[in-house]
Amino acid sequence: MLEVLLGGLLLGGMYGLVALGLNLQYGVSRVLNLAYGEFLIGGAFIAFFTVMSRWQLNPLLSLLASVPIAFVLNWLIYRCLMLPLVKRAPDQDALDADVVLVTFGLFFVLQGLALVGWSGDLRGYSFLAVANPFLSTHFGLMIAQNRLLAFLGACGLALALFLILRHTRVGSALRAMTIDPVAAELMGVDVRKLSALAFAAGGALAATAGMLVSTFISFSATTGVEYTLKALIVVIMAGVGRVTGTLAAGLLLGVVEQMGGYLLDPGLTLAINFGLFTLILLLRPTGLFTRA
Amino acid sequence: MDRRTFVKGTAAAAGASTLSGRVFAQAAAPDKIRFGYAITQSGPLGPGAESTSISQYKLWQKRVNDAGGILLKKFNKKVPIEFVSYDDQGKPDELLKLTERLIQQDKVDMMLGPYATHMNLAAAPIITKHEYPVIMTTATTAKTYELAAKWPYAFWNISQPNESAHPLSNALGQLKKEGKVTGRVAVVHVALEFGVEMHAAFVEQAKKDGLEVVLSKSYPLGSADLQPLIREAMATNADAFVCMSYPPDTFMLTEQCQIVGFNPKFMYVAVGGVFPGMKDKFGSKVNGILVYGGVNPGEPGMAEYNKAHQAMFNRGSEAGALNVYGALQVTQQAIEKVGEIDRKKIRDVIASDTFPTLWGDLKYVNQRNASPWCVGQWQNGEVVGVYPANKAGAKALLFPKPAWS
After folding, report:
1. Is residue A20 a contact partner of residue A154, using CB atoms and an 8 Å limit?
2. Backbone angles phi, psi at B354, to 5 degrees
3. Whole-number percent of chain B with pLDDT over 70
4. A53 touches chain B (CB under 8 A)
5. Tally of structural domains, chain B
6. Dihedrals φ, ψ of B290, to 5°?
7. Is the dihedral of CA B283, B196, B44, B259 positive or negative?
8. What 3-state class would DSSP assign to B386?
9. For the domain that residue A162 is a member of, what is the CATH number?
10. Beta carbons of B358 and B329 less than 8 angstroms apart
11. To the nearest whole angstrom, how far is the Cα of A17 from the nearest Cα of chain B?
12. Helix, strand or coil for residue B36?
């Protein structure tokens, strides 16, 4: 029972991790990026090729490559593709519609490229696929090290993001943009520059999440969209622009899914997931962690 | 010119060009044989389709064309293969549209099958309607027993749920009699038609074989964590673990059994168990795992095939893909026996002759493969066929499965 609960927390950590970058992109840059999952899978592939390379390197090293690549690519996407849309959009609703179309197209292009380059084969590798020795000997709990690593990664990144947003000048500006981009601009915040920065950082977070998730879930060139959807659910549950809320919403989703599967039936996990999502949409349409 | 006249004009032109094509074909050999297929390239089933089917289509095309093509006796000429293909996105309605398109608009000479049971079933009536013989290589459903007669142009290549599940139960029953297992079996299955049918077939037979099914649960496709399920199986003290699983979960089940230290003496995973990725990921720990489908690595021509496969895809071939390659070989041999593209005659040859292939000798009785490989096992780092035990090249069961570490 305790193990199931912990398993749910770890799973939820993963959901939160996957959603962090998307929330940064959507919350701060105001761009709903449907190609988000492709960058996550990109991170996973770079990790895979790092492990499967001749030198059989540690997948963590792949972050040295994937994070800068994702950062630069996402920065370029924002500057070249999104900015023209932002400039011409009369309001947020119009922007949302344009952005969804463009990023949907981008998703197809990126997935197509991934299919051509990496084929549709299912990939996976073994990394830290053992139970945590401390928890298993002292408490008899079997907790996979790779899932634990992803969980700690999620907490670490959420904490870092939280601290940056709370205690730095850039962070204050980013928060101001989340609340009211027009007012922020009037106060002298360079909204376009910071939006590009947040978007790029979101992409880098996606690549990091992809690497961490790839240590325990097999993936292929076409699985990115599943992560986009999961992330979207978590972001909407948490409330757009809430960083710590994203992690909390992810944890909630993971625990409810796992406990429901354990207490009722594993076949019901999807139904439980979407049931929770619907419930939250009905009761708190702006998200769990937004102040009304 | 308004739109309507334009459409009419185009249609007339297209009609004229096909007509002239036909006249021309009577005079001389065709310069190519056009094969059409619609298959899943994106979506959750994309990776499986790539690994099992598409890769084999491409490899077969290359190898046949490198040898000059398919020999058409009537013209005494070897004719190369050309493909026309589309992505059905895993949607049956899309598949139907594309199949119609391939036949009516692209006017392909022959068709190849789609991927996954429900897609094979969706395609069977339509290719029968247009009288295109197709060997369905990725369908396993109890329905084929009744449907084969209805759809005379569809052939069914792989083992059906009963054929796949019964040998597992029989083997466990035998091991129980010999006192080697307790007969306590934990069975889990993916909540898809495949999983449900395999599960039902196994559980029913298990009763007859004197086994005790101590856990019987399903999980949704693409579950993110199957550890609770494995822990439940462990808690039942089962020493046999039978998973009617699909590709992503097959990997996850295998990994999570290792993490929690669940060491059943007898372990089966279904679809995806034969993927080379299993060995890439788990190394020698794959040994002893029983899998869906099998192969005789000693089949003549296997070494050349493996070499060509490695050269084309830079990875080893998947044992489950050999049934697809075998079906392509049957198609080629049938065309060569007929000597021209006469689909009715090709269908009749496939229905009656025996064809030597890399997947053993293939013979269809009532359009169903008379003796497909049903259960394989990882032994010494490769997949071998274990059941049916009386099939040429079958290896003895490796029991008990070695512990993970």
Report:
1. yes
2. -115, 140
3. 93
4. no
5. 2
6. -85, 145
7. negative
8. strand
9. 1.10.3470
10. yes
11. 14
12. strand
Asked whether the beta carbons of residue A222 and residue B228 sit closer than 8 angstroms, the reply is no
CATH for B265: 3.40.50.2300
Kindly state whether A124 is in contact with chain B, defined as any CB-CB distance less than 8 angstroms: yes
ipTM, two decimals:
0.82
Q: Are residues B166 and B283 in the same domain?
A: yes
Which DSSP string do the residues of B321-371 spell out, in sequence order?
GHHHHHHHHHHHHHHHHH-S--HHHHHHHHHH-EEEETTEEEEEETTEESS
In a domain, A288, yes or no: no
Pick from A44-58, B82-96, B274-288 the range whose average pLDDT is largest: B82-96
Per the structure, the complete domain to which residue A119 belongs is given by 2-283
For the beta carbon of residue B196, count every other beta carbon within 10 angstroms: 15
Q: What is the pLDDT of residues B134-169, one digit of tens each?
A: 999 998 887 877 888 899 999 999 988 888 999 999
Cβ contact A142–B46 (<8 Å): no
Place of tokens 């056009």: B34
On whether both B244 and B383 belong to a single domain, the answer is yes
Number of domains chain A contains: 1
In a domain, B121, yes or no: yes
Structural domain boundaries enclosing B195: 161-292+374-387
Which residue among B260, B283, B313 sits closest to A142, beta carbon to beta carbon?
A: B260
A270 → chain B, closest CA residue: B220
A128 CA to chain B: closest CA distance, Å?
A: 9
DSSP designation for B272: T
Q: Distance from A22 to chain B by nearest Cα, in Å?
A: 20
Q: What is the reported pTM?
A: 0.82
| Cβ-proximal residues to A121 (8 Å cutoff; 6+ apart), any chain | A220, B47, B50, B51, B277, B315
Collect the ranges in chain A with pLDDT lower than 50: none
Q: B259 and A217 in contact by Cβ < 8 A?
A: no
Q: Residue B47 and residue A120: Cβ atoms within 8 Å?
A: yes
- Residue-wise pLDDT for B8-51, tens only, equals 544 544 444 444 444 444 557 899 999 999 999 887 778 778 88
Whether residues B50 and A226 touch (CB distance < 8 A) is answered with no
Helices A224-238 and A191-214: crossing angle in degrees, nearest 10, is 120
**Closest CA–CA distance from residue B219 to any residue of chain A (Å):** 4
